[in-house]
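Fig. S4 source data, part A: sequence.
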Amino acid sequence: MSAAPESLARRLGFTDAVVIGVGAMVGAGVFAVLGPAAEAAGTGLLVALVIAAAVAYLNAVASAQLAAAYPTSGGTYVFGRERLGPWWGFAAGWSFVIGKTASCAAMALVFAAYAVPGPEWVQRVTAACAVVALAALNYRGITKTVALTRILLAFTLLALVIVVVALAAGEASGSEQLGGWQALGEGGVLGTLQAAGLLFFAFAGYARLATLGEEVVQPERTSPRAIVTALALTIGVYLVVAVAALLAAGPQRLAGSPTPLVEALDAVGQGSWAPVVGAGAAVAALGALLSLMAGIGRTTLAMGRNRDLPGWLAAVHPTYRAPHHAEVALAVVVAALVLTVDLRDAIGFSSFGVLLYYAIANASAFSQPAHQRRWPRWFNVLGAVSCVVLAATLPDSAVVTGAAVLAVGLLGRAVALRARWGTR
């Protein structure tokens, strides 16, 4: 009996890739992250949003340049191995897997919080069920993922349009809520950078396009264009929504609410639209969760191929052409997390892991030869430094936990390599 082919099928065109990227970024972040960012920086969250978008752009062009040169599954895990060596690749892959697994838990929890009124345990069980259902969809292949992502993204964008229009038409919306130019610095440098690190959580969806490189048609041309296009569209959406919410409610009121867009609607007498926000948030969370799980599955596949994770995770389903073992393992881990973790901690931990991932992506892009380069090297230097700075300014619990889990992964790889060498 011949072995099943191990490669994934190239089925994603430019539009499909953009949909996956935007669907991953315009997710629950826009409904949940404005609150913690306002708490850290006040009106300065607008400055933080610009900083997060700038760092995201630097990371996106580095990822685009690398994806064009290495069109295979795994993203910066592969890029780091090829450009910097196996240990750097492992650090990137491990940071991505742990960070984005936390993101999956956060998205599932946001979905349940908006979709299921009731006790916390009911919301957690609902979140776990959503994870299992979407894993089953991803199990059946990437074209199923894209089809549902299109539907979820369309509904999310419609909900955001309705919210922004309602806020603009409200009773008390105005620039006085912002507190003047001096209010932009009220969070101080540390508060603004911390807010930028938290907001970065909502921008990191373009990583999905790099990790799906093995399934993109003409990846050398499609991936760079899709990554930059998806990011540009998302930045526009986030700026419009953030400005509308601040003009409606002001930073203090947003900071005190776990549902900042609902709070903004209440502030201008448009609370009757709150169910639209709830539905939009629930659908956005599902869309982001679906795309996140697809990306993690592909990175896990690549790490399994190189024995940086157990080799059985590299299995590709003979019919659906999806990394089915990786999808099942991810569903089990995320379901366990949503039953135990706190949403804010999940967001901070996710940002820490993903920022480290992109620091390595920038270092990898910096090392590329001239014929592979599309942007200047100083972009990569600025991108890497920015990622490290934002990661360091995240809440202490996120930094300590993230560093500890990263160390466990590196130690585990060292032990596994030593055992492997000992058997030779």
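Fig. S4 source data, part B ends here. The domain at 14-415 is CATH 1.20.1740.10 (Amino acid/polyamine transporter I).
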